[in-house]
Amino acid sequence: MLGRSSNETVGANRRTIRRRGFIKITGAASITAGVAGCFGGADDSALQLTATNEWQNNSDEIQQALYDAGLSEDIEIELISGGSKTDEMQNQYSQWLSSNQAKPDLLVFDSGWTLPFIVRGQILNLEGELPEDTLETIHDDYFEQSVNSTTGPDGKLHGVPLYPDFPTIQYRKDLVEEAGYDWGRHRTDPLSWERFSHELADVYEQSDVTYGYNWQAASEIQLACCVFNEFVSSWGGAYFGNPEENLYGPIGDRPVTVAEEPVFEALRMARTFIHGTDEPDTLDEFAGEITSDEAFQWGLSPSMQPFTDGNAVALRNWPYSININGADDVLGEDMGVMPMPYGVPEGEGEYPGTGGSIGALGGWNYCVNPNTNRLDECLEVLQVLTTEEFQRENFELVGHIPPNPDVLENADDVPVMGRYLDALSFAGEHTMARPATAVWSQQSDPVAQEVNAALMGDVGVEEAMSKLDSRLTELETSFSDS
Amino acid sequence: MSTEERSSTVTQTGTTPRYRVDLATLDWLERRSDTQFVYMMLLPVFALLGTMAIWPLIYTANISLHADSIATADPIGEFVGHRNYVDILTGEANLQRPFFSLSNPFTSAAPVTLIYTVSAVLVETVLGLSMALILNREFRGRRWVRVAMILPWTVPIVIQGMIFYLMFQPSIGFAVGPLNDLGVVSSTPLATSRDGLLIAIIADVWKQSAFMALLILAGLQSIDRSLYSVARVAGASRIQQFKTITFPLVLPALLVALLFRTIGALKVYGLVESTAGCNTVPTLSCLVINLWSANRYGSAAAVAFIIAAVIGILLVGYLVQLRKQETGGT
A438 touching B, CB under 8 A? Predict the structure, then answer.
């Protein structure tokens, strides 16, 4: 018994020491963590802007360019990431803005999904906030489609375009000229797809490169928003009827027009490019097998790599790649740029605004977080973005196309990009915005899936488009019912 | 400060010095029983668990009972009860892909996930068991073989996805040509749902078989070696030893490994997204992410809870089986 009592006492003492020690240690740890928390908080003294990857990679230069263009030196800028990919940014913004956070103060929005945020009332209406002359400049002088992408259904401006983005055809000028063609004269006078296919097939045959015409046919959003949108628009078709009226709605009350002849023709042409003319659902009058079937797996980078390596005749891509491929240590002056070819001549499409050379409109806009506590500073940044000085500098630094065409036209002394101004200006005036309604993020997947399946030949063209018609119609209906 | 000064301060202000309160608290703590003390110490953990796990779960469950709201500032629509669940399970909900369609097993979310889970876990189990049986034997260089087998398991999911993505890129991947010649995959395997699913399964097997092997090996090494000596003396063949000793005794570890892998496979997202992409191989988790990205929070939460329910049912099944094993089937 004695021994047991003794043991219990020892145990109790040991326990007492452990408990006291434990409480002290955890107390100290809590205080340390608390103090660390106080010192580790975010710095709110700077005006926070989310930024594109190009801006983040050139953060110091961009900030200096803003100050040089007139931004008050006492406004400290902090560029932050909203996500590395566009869909990540979209999700992140949803969370930030739904929780009414005051930060970030300014947000850069993809023109493809600015509108859903405007519709949900999550972006500040800039009418009445920006000075009249700034608003006039944006409304009257900027690329119209860029302004439309940041204008709400009420006609009010909710963002300032940072840069528009539109694709062009980049090509190996040396190979084309060696084969006896001059595509330089098509910089402002586009080729038809039919002639393009024949001439490219000839160049391809005469050269020793592995790839002909590279474009993106993977089942990704890129196919839905842009590549297929361009094919369809240039053939005079549309996803939702008249683009001038229905591009941004009304959802549920607009026709779905993908099961129509211009869309079928566009798909048949694209299939011809890949499969040649012997396969079903192809067009005999076109030259075929100019695009590798690897295109089924190609997004932007995989399709571009062979061209950058000098191993392809032509490439469809956005202007950022012109800056890369046209650099002196890549293709340099051996690279040519021209607008997208057309399916039917301009004005002869089934719907207004369709037909002719058409590139899908991309680009980014800066919008103000309505919960910001630093509205005046945000508005000052937006005004600086509209200055010619800043837009030129931004074009030269990172290749962002000035949203004001006048600035673009006067930037021919800018290295690399300056060589292709006429083609870029023409392409900028011939763009088609994507149908970026609130339901588009739901609709772009079915478009990519069905078009990709039809391109591969898993289903017939008409069958695929009929299925797509049903899926888009269902989404339109379910959205308008909700 | 002297003792007198301190006493004077106490008298003047009429308050108890702080350190006396602390001591009283410590004394009070010491008078608690062990059980009470343990629970008190666990309280912060429970609070953390409640805040970080239980509350978000309840919150998400609540969202799943509300309609999608795409075009208003309020991301959550009106309360609709279990309608989201009914709509999803009856095919009424307009999801981006059919949720369950046996006629489209490679392009519908539920069949794709089911095929992926069953195939990957089955192959991983067989391979994992084989690897564990080999590693359980004494042979020269066993340590090196163990390292080689475990190496794939240490590779992060994104890197694993990138490895297989590059392997199956036609212009650069070395696997496309020979496999295409053999008729196993098409010339653009990452663009077709059937091939993409196959590649995702192979990638999963490449990585996770080692994980299965490790868990099964732990079970194998806990088996009493004397049982084999007795069996040998009794004249049992190797197959008989495996059937009567190894397999029954390793089964609990095998079931635990199966449980982990099945749950992991049912939730697969990162691997699929980084190889063929969610548009080509649409798993259930892809569906949740896509719905969430499209601001359809109600539907996304409902699909997530359906996945959780399936995992829960499996979990109960495994636990019942484990309990049977432990109690000898009674």
Answer: yes
Q: Which of A119, A302, A446 sits opposite B96 (nearest CB)?
A: A446
Contact with chain B for residue A218, Cβ under 8 A: yes
Asked if B29 and A19 come within 8 Å (Cβ–Cβ), the reply is yes
CB contact under 8 A, B279 and A446: no
The pLDDT tens digits of the residues spanning A394-427 come to 998 888 999 999 998 888 889 899 999 999 999 9
Whether B47 has its CB under 8 Å from any CB of chain A: the answer is no
CB A108 within 8 A of CB A80: no
Q: What is the pTM of this model?
A: 0.82
Residue B171 contacts A where some CB pair is shorter than 8 Å: yes
Give yes or no for residue B15 having a pLDDT over 60: no
* Distances in whole angstroms, Cα of residue B21 to Cα of each of B12, B26, B41: 18, 9, 20
| Chain A residues whose beta carbon lies within 8 Å of the beta carbon of residue B190 | 297
B75 interaction partners in chain A (CB closer than 8 Å): 94, 98
CA B1/CA B8 separation, integer angstroms: 11
Structure tokens at B306: 């359906």
Amino acid at residue number A448: A
Contact B292 A121 (CB under 8 A): no
CA distances (Å), origin B184, targets A458, B114, B121, B178: 17, 21, 21, 9
Virtual torsion, Cα A54, A59, A64, A67, nearest 10 deg: 90
The top-scoring range by mean pLDDT among A262-266, A361-365, B142-146, B247-251 is A262-266
Is B293 in contact with A293 (Cβ distance < 8 A)? no
Question: Strand ranges (DSSP E) for A30-120?
Answer: 47-50, 77-80, 106-110
Contact, A236 vs A262, CB < 8 A? Answer: yes
* Chain B hits for A116, Cβ within 8 Å: 70-71, 295
Residue A170 dihedral angles phi and psi, to the nearest 5°: -100, 140
CB A469 within 8 A of CB A450: no
DSSP-derived secondary structure letter, B184: S
What are the pLDDT digits (tens) for A306-327?
999 999 999 999 998 998 899 9
Contact of B72 with chain A, judged by CB distance below 8 Å, is answered with: yes
What does the CA dihedral A240, A241, A245, A246 come to, rounded to 10 degrees? Answer: -10
pLDDT in tens, A351-395: 999 999 999 988 999 999 999 999 999 999 999 999 999 999 999
- Cα–Cα distance for residue pair A348/A350, rounded to 1 Å: 7
Structure tokens at A456: 């591969």
Q: Can you tell me the distance from the alpha carbon of A232 to that of A355, in angstroms, rounded to the nearest whole number?
A: 9
Helices and strands in chain A: count of H runs, count of E runs = 21, 10
Strands A211-214 vs B66-68: parallel, antiparallel or unpaired: unpaired
CB contact under 8 A, A98 and B170: no
Q: How many CB atoms lie within 10 A of CB B222?
A: 11
| Whether the predicted pLDDT of A14 surpasses 60 | no
The arithmetic mean of pLDDT across residues A13-19, rounded, is 52
Q: Please name the residues between 187 and 206 in chain B that touch chain A, using a CB distance below 8 Å.
A: 187-188, 190-192
Separation between Cα atoms, residue B160 and residue A467, nearest integer Å: 35
Contact B294 A452 (CB under 8 A): no
Please give the Cα distance from B117 to B272 (Å, whole number): 13
With an 8 Å Cβ cutoff, is B277 touching chain A? yes
Q: Which residue of chain B has the CA closest to A87?
A: B293
Q: For B159-162, which contacts have Cβ atoms below 8 Å and span 24 or more sequence positions?
A: B160/B203, B160/B206, B160/B207, B160/B271, B160/B274, B161/B203, B161/B270, B161/B271, B161/B273, B161/B274, B161/B275, B162/B274
User: How many helices, marked H, and strands, marked E, lie in chain B?
Assistant: 16, 2
Cβ within 8 Å, pair B41-A302:
no
Instruction: State the DSSP H helix or E strand holding residue A163, giving kind and residue range, or none if neither.
Output: strand A160-165
